[in-house]
């Protein structure tokens, strides 16, 4: 339940359109819903404008189904992240109306038609695209206009400059890179807007499953660059949305 729905509920109660018993029934699960194995934060939409996001990895099919069933009935929209395709396939049998984005590994209720602002998501390489797509879908679910520019890493930096006009018009950028993780600092030096650096675990040997890229991004000399955790496409997309709509 978000602020708009709560106001409508209270106004209907005030006007006598619903009974006190009905209002209590709608509100009885605040501030969280106890499922035994999980406590679903039903107050999150009121505090932050979007429901609690379900982390799909590590949960059983039964646990995910129970959580999704509850949140689907209470909220206009929601997100399940890091949801493997084989797990999503089983869940969609019970919830065929939901949308699954295979590359992003995100399950959601809908993508809003009305979108705001301008977020640009860049990936250094093609192998970074799945994490970039997680950021893209997250931002779109939250109601943002997103432009994707992929495979423009520093090994072929001339590819980036063909998109300079789009990049400089964006309100916020998400720059996704593995390997040495140099792309966010380069982009940061070309724009006056916030750049969210998103390291991926793409790479081999001394890349240390994304730690090298992560440390490079933390040490960026571009002052407009801030870094999220390794492979955290959701976090980058959510933060970009706050900046874009702020």
Layout of helices and strands, plus pairs?
Layout: H1 3-14, H2 20-27, E1 32-34, E2 39-41, H3 44-48, E3 54-55, H4 61-74, E4 79-81, H5 85-94, E5 99-101, E6 106-108, E7 116-123, H6 129-141, E8 144-149, H7 158-161, H8 164-169, E9 172-177, H9 183-188, E10 195-199, H10 211-218, E11 225-227, H11 233-245
Parallel strand pairs: 3-4, 7-8, 7-9, 9-10, 10-11
Antiparallel strand pairs: 1-2, 4-6, 5-6
Helix pairs in contact: 6-11
Can you describe this structure?
The chain has 246 residues and is an alpha/beta fold. The chain has two domains: 31-108, no CATH class; 116-245, Rossmann fold. It is built from eleven helices and eleven strands. The chain has helices at 3-14, 20-27, 44-48, 61-74, 85-94, 129-141, 158-161, 164-169, 183-188, 211-218, 233-245, and strands spanning 32-34, 39-41, 54-55, 79-81, 99-101, 106-108, 116-123, 144-149, 172-177, 195-199, 225-227. Strand 7 (116-123), helix 6 and strand 8 form a beta-alpha-beta unit. Helix 6 crosses helix 11 (233-245). The longest helix is centred in the first third of the chain and has 14 residues, at 61-74. The chain is globular. The model has no long low-confidence stretch (mean pLDDT 90).
Short recap of the structure:
By secondary structure, the chain is α/β, with parallel strands linked by helices.
Spell out the key features of this protein:
single chain; 4-stranded mixed β-sheet; alpha/beta; 246 residues; Rossmann fold
